[in-house]
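Figure 3 (text version): structure tokens given as input.
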């Protein structure tokens, strides 16, 4: 296989992948990321405001697990792409030892 055929094969395979995979593997050579501008100061302030509001009004979390159970039942014995999100809040260990449990639960659920 010559270089041209290899490039064409890579292009075909890349077009079959999801945009998320293309973005995370940098297949588009940064074009996606360069189009997005992040204002971290604004994002931090918005997050802080959201958390303070949640703490003030006792954030109510919908703990209905029925949609998740239905999804799992519909996909028994099948292979599907799945993303598992793990979040480690900076200072959460210290928070768990210094604030009441109900406040910590509110903070975690607000995220």
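Below: residues designed for each position.
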């Amino acid at each position: 296989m010559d270089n041209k055929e290899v490039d064409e094969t890579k292009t075909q395979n890349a077009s079959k992948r999801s945009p998320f995979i293309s973005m995370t593997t940098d297949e588009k050579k940064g074009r996606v990321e360069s189009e997005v501008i992040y204002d971290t100061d604004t994002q931090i302030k918005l997050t802080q405001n959201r958390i303070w509001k949640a703490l003030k009004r006792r954030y109510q979390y919908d703990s209905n697990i029925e949609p998740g159970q239905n999804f799992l039942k519909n996909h028994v014995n099948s292979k599907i792409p799945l993303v598992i999100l793990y979040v480690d809040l900076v200072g959460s260990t210290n928070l768990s030892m210094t604030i009441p449990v109900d406040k910590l639960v509110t903070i975690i659920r607000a995220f």
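Confidence is low (pLDDT under 50) at residues 13-34.
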